[in-house]
Design a protein that fits this description.
This protein has 356 residues and is α/β, with parallel strands linked by helices. The chain has 2 domains: 173 residues, Rossmann fold (3-Layer(aba) Sandwich); 164 residues, Dehydroquinate synthase-like - alpha domain (Dehydroquinate synthase-like, alpha domain, Up-down Bundle), CATH 1.20.1090. The chain is built from 13 helices and 11 strands. The strands form 3 sheets. The chain has a 7-stranded mixed sheet with strand order 1-2-9-6-5-3-4, with helices on both faces. A two-stranded antiparallel sheet has the order 7-8. Strand 10 and strand 11 form a beta hairpin. It is globular. It binds nicotinamide-adenine-dinucleotide and zinc ion (ZN). The site of zinc ion (ZN) has 5 residues, from helix 10.
């Protein structure tokens, strides 16, 4: 079992536990944070049949009054309608300011529950129990919560840090290879940003049997960045490596391409552009592309630079005239670059090997 602590500059601090058997012990853990109260567990209909009962029992045993709310699986549950129904469910269960929400699922459940917890009664506490690798290495840590609007992904949300994160790596056993690859994309991203040893696990190691090490390394890097810049005014933007193109790919594919797969394509695009522009050495760029492929991730886009840049500039991260893009320099170091919106298509074109 690994225990890491994330402390934000304004003194908020929470534990992130990674190991086995946490579904069974989460009740005790949560009881150590707050006196037993009402707990609303939010999950989706894939995860609930597998793990909900364990979490319900653990919380009941620790003295909590337990309520549950199960939504449909998938990105479509990050919607205003599902969000509204969840808030009504909190009210129906008479949750008060001192009660707690529990997100049991992947990034979709974490983002949705965190946002609802942040809004309900102007903010109640919530804990994250990530059950996907993507959520364990990235989404469950750092306090970004959001739902999607018809105009784009994550357009309504807030920063609301969890009170704790419990990652039971046993839950990862029921993920499909596709879902594991989604998480691998964010972990490889983290390796490129600042942890060459994490990258090496995916380049030459045995990631399927190294989950605890992967998660704790990714959490350590993300915690360091979030501690420095919780609200993404500066260095936290680095975590968006590959994401400018990725969000456009997700939208253009109508979410048929999942977040992690889109991040892999986005990372490949900026990597090739960095090589073409002489920012990254050719052999390092090749290592990144090969490592994505080794982990069953795509590196090519079915969309053109024009299509991607048009959608990407509608993204919320695009300030009026400029956009900050993250460019890899070496495996373990990336730079932030502010470029005019009009230059984005050229960057993507370089990454896609297109002539413009
Ligand atoms: N808040 C953040 O900082 C942050 C960071 C990265 C991604 N995200 C968001 O996270 C979302 C993607 O997260 P995700 O990839 O976890 O998607 P997800 O929550 O949709 O989970 C993927 C699929 O796996 C199923 N599932 C989850 N756990 C399972 C388990 N243990 N066994 C079997 N099936 C399981 C789910 O039902 C779903 O069908 C996106 O909406 C993305 O925007 C947020
Ligand atoms: Zn991401």
């Amino acid at each position: 079992m690994k225990k890491q602590i994330l402390t934000t500059p304004d003194g908020e601090s929470y534990p992130i536990l990674t190991g086995t058997g946490l579904l069974e012990t989460c009740g005790q853990e949560i009881a150590a944070l707050t006196a037993p109260c009402r707990a609303m567990i939010v999950s989706d209909s894939n995860v609930a049949p597998l793990y909900l009962e364990k979490v319900v029992n653990s919380l009941k045993l620790a003295g909590f009054e337990v309520h549950t709310h199960v939504v449909s699986p998938g990105e479509n549950s990050k919607s205003i309608a599902v969000f509204g129904a969840l808030l009504e469910s909190f009210a129906e269960a008479h949750l008060t300011r001192t009660d707690i929400a529990v997100a049991l699922g992947g990034g979709v459940i974490g983002d949705l529950t965190g946002f609802a917890a942040g809004c309900y009664l102007r903010g109640i506490r919530f804990v994250q129990i990530p059950t996907t690798l993507l959520s364990a290495v990235d989404a469950s840590v750092g306090g970004k919560t959001a739902i999607n609007l018809q105009h784009g992904k994550n357009l309504a949300g807030m920063f609301h840090q969890p009170a704790a994160v419990y990652c039971d790596i046993n839950t990862l056993k029921s993920l499909t290879p596709h879902e594991l690859a989604d998480g691998a994309a964010e972990a490889i991203k983290t390796g490129i940003l600042g942890d060459p040893e994490l990258f090496a696990i995916y380049e030459t190691g045995d990631p399927e049997n190294d989950a605890e090490e992967i998660i704790s390394r990714a959490v350590a890097y993300k915690s360091k960045i979030v501690t420095e810049d919780p609200q993404e005014h500066g260095v936290r933007k680095l975590l968006n490596l590959g994401h400018t193109a990725a969000h456009a790919i997700e939208l253009l594919s109508n979410f048929a391409i999942s977040h992690g797969h889109a991040v892999a394509i986005g990372t490949a695009i900026v990597t090739r552009a960095a090589v073409k522009r002489g920012i990254m050495k050719n052999d390092e760029g090749t290592r990144i592309i090969n490592t994505l492929k080794r982990n069953h991730l795509p590196t090519d886009s079915a969309f053109t630079a024009k299509e991607l840049s048009k959608i990407a500039t509608l993204d919320k991260k695009a300030a009026a005239k400029d956009i900050t893009v993250i460019i890899p320099e070496t495996i373990g170091r990336c730079r932030m670059e502010k470029i005019p919106i009009s230059a984005l298509e050229g960057l993507f074109a370089d990454g896609l090997g297109e002539q413009v």
